[in-house]
């Protein structure tokens, strides 16, 4: 089998493997070197909400070079040369101006001994800009056509290998029967999780999404709660909202994943009892619960007695603990009070 076919197959196998993302990226660079010679290389993840890239893997680069590559200036240089767009691999010799006019090359790469190279943007399904690859050479010779073709051919495979959505989708599969989901960025914005349907309860500005983002900000590994459909009295029943923090090896600004799944076993609790239970989990007293729900304290006490029976607990404190662990928590947010639950 020709060497290029062997390399193509090896890169594809690594890209499709279950290795952690940094390990996949590192191994793909190692194999890529057999077809695309370089003196240094940088495989990065694009951050759509910040003007910079995050290193997925690097080969033979000094710390100062890596620091530059993850700086906003590198992102500006990439944009200035158009290498953040879907196009064939680009070398400095292809530019319509001397490469010395780029601040990054003039201030970092040329002093580090690099004269040539190839760069290509990496795109995932739907045209998502997922990453960037730069290979660097101390040789001033223009990269030969066969090397360019090899890199162009492997760019989609490299994109699949470093696509952070793969890691997030794997995380999402931990939630049984999840049928809708979004990826939440560090700035609070959300975008659909590939392979998952959308849902109104996760729409931008929804109180349910705000409640999930608050859970992610507290940095639990996993937290789920119930959300009433159709308003605070849940005429449409409940959905389960699950907030998951991203894998630790994901070097991008992602706060986590928020998923929607059916609410299965509610332990026979009524919508009103779940509402009382949510306030109980929040540490509210009977008087505070009565005031929040506009009922008497006697009514609240009766609901709590029923809750303890259904959860088989001798105290309200233990009922709150068990409810939170079992995901029987309905958060008290302003959107619910106004009947805005989806």
Structure description:
With 342 residues, this protein is an alpha+beta fold. The chain has three domains: 3-162, Beta-Lactamase (2-Layer Sandwich); 164-264, Beta-Lactamase (2-Layer Sandwich); 268-325, Orthogonal Bundle (Arc Repressor Mutant, subunit A), CATH 1.10.10. α1 packs antiparallel against α2 (21-32) and α10 crosses α11. The protein has 13 helices and nine strands. Mean pLDDT is 88; it is low at 334-342. Helix content is 39%, strand content 18%.
- Architecture of the largest domain in CATH? 2-Layer Sandwich
Q: Report the principal-axis shape.
A: elongated
- Give the number of DSSP strands: 9
Per the CATH scheme, the topology name of the largest domain is Beta-Lactamase
